[in-house]
Write a structure and sequence with these properties.
Blueprint: E1 12-16, H1 22-35, E2 45-47, H2 48-52, H3 54-70, H4 72-81, H5 85-114, E3 118-121, H6 124-135, E4 143-146, E5 163-166, H7 171-177, E6 185-187, H8 202-208, E7 217-221, H9 230-238, E8 245-249, H10 254-263, E9 270-274, H11 280-286, E10 289-292, H12 296-304, E11 309-312, H13 318-328, E12 332-335, H14 338-349, H15 352-365, H16 370-382
Parallel strand pairs: 1-2, 1-3, 3-4, 4-5, 5-6, 7-8, 7-10, 8-9, 10-11, 11-12
């Protein structure tokens, strides 16, 4: 599309969905980057389903969370069946038809009231509505898709998207194969909190947390929901022969946090248990290794501080694809269940070469300034000055 004459920065309306925390965190990262832009860019964030219909929010997000928790294999099967654009075309048309009917009128009124210079989506579902409005001549401003994983699913691909922002160069061919021109793709990294672009010293962060400077620190995470075999992993590492210290994040899972807190004093290695953590960058900066899920945002944050990732039981679907990508790049290791985790961690900690290799690969993939890079690509498309 033709770029506008350079003008002062204005407003970007960001549409996301709170299915998991990552999509909303990416949107929040863009908002923080906008606040630090010169001149500032306003980036209001809308939880799309919650705004349009609390009922739709409860049904759609509730169904997704229930599937990944209770029947992840079913979710993975559906994800893979719809991964190929040719296979998913009919399903995509029917799904978006229903979604558009439910959400388009109210969303169109919101866009008119907010009058933004562009629309940014950190979740694929709002994209279908914006594409629908564009095809009917009811939307003329640019639409930007921010892909928050290390893969591209066909449900992100719509003709009405003016610009795709992706995690790395390897994703560009994936979009091209699905019919997107390479000129509509910018490699910026997944937007993460701009605080990750700061300078962090591992020993200083260990000292701030009261950790021993001479012992390796392993960060164990289960995402915002505290999912995965966290307790089994903590038990295995807690009795590991090689001395380590563990930082364990249970997220919003209060029941799990309580169980881990009771378990910690019984273990040979030192364990600190956290619930939901606002300053996760400090824990990541203190750690020598992260063990956890393969959510796009969490992985992007870890890579930004050069933190290698051991991934256990990724959720079939986008997490599985994230894990495969990061393992191919040498920044992650797929661990075959909690029973193997202690042995794999022992091997890693006892091999300086292994540690240097994984840390270097993680640092090479990391994009700590991704939120500013994304905002730069968006403002360049819209034709706004500043930086």
């Amino acid at each position: 599309m033709q770029r506008a004459t350079m003008a002062k920065a204005g407003k970007l309306l960001t549409l996301s969905v709170s299915a998991g925390a990552g999509h909303m965190r990416a949107a929040a990262a863009l908002a923080r980057a906008g606040a630090g832009w010169h001149p500032p860019v306003a980036v209001p964030v809308i939880d799309t389903f919650r705004y349009v219909s609390p009922f739709l929010q409860n049904v759609s997000v509730g169904l997704y969370l229930e599937m990944v928790r209770v029947t992840p294999r079913v979710y993975g099967y559906i994800y893979r069946r719809l991964e190929d654009g040719r296979t998913s075309a009919r399903t995509k048309v029917e799904f978006t038809r229903v979604l558009n009917r439910l959400t388009a009128p109210k969303l169109a009124r919101l866009i008119a009231a907010e009058d933004p210079g562009a629309l940014v989506c950190t979740n694929n579902f709002p994209l279908s509505v914006l594409d629908y409005l564009k095809r009917r001549g009811k939307l003329s401003i640019p639409v930007i898709a921010v892909i928050t994983d290390f893969t591209v699913h066909s449900f992100w691909v719509f003709g009405g998207v003016d610009l795709y922002l992706v995690a790395g160069e390897a994703l560009v061919p994936q979009l091209v194969r699905q019919g997107v021109e390479a000129g509509r793709v910018a490699v910026t990294g997944i937007p993460i909190d701009p605080v990750f672009a700061g300078s962090w010293d591992r020993q200083e962060e260990k000292a701030r947390l009261g950790l021993r400077p001479d012992l390796p620190c392993v960060l164990v995470m289960g995402g915002a929901l505290g999912m995965g075999p966290l307790q089994a992993v903590v038990e295995a590492l807690g009795h590991m022969a090689t001395p380590v210290q563990l930082l364990v994040v249970a997220g919003n899972n209060a029941v799990l946090k309580g169980r881990l807190a009771r378990l910690a004093p019984t273990l040979a290695n030192h364990v600190r248990v956290f619930g939901f953590v606002q300053e996760i960058h400090r824990l990541m900066a203190a750690a020598d290794l992260m063990i956890g899920k393969a959510g796009g945002l969490s992985c992007a944050e870890a890579l930004a501080v050069g933190l290698p990732i051991f991934i256990i039981d990724p959720i079939p679907g986008q997490e599985e694809r994230n894990a495969e990508f990061l393992a191919r790049q040498g920044a992650a290791l797929l661990v075959e269940g909690p029973s193997r985790v202690a042995g794999d961690v022992e091997n890693y900690l006892c091999s300086p070469e292994f540690r240097r290799s994984m840390s270097g690969a993680a640092r090479g993939l990391g994009r700590p300034d991704a939120a500013r890079a994304a905002l730069g690509a968006i403002t360049a498309l819209v034709g706004w000055e500043g930086g």
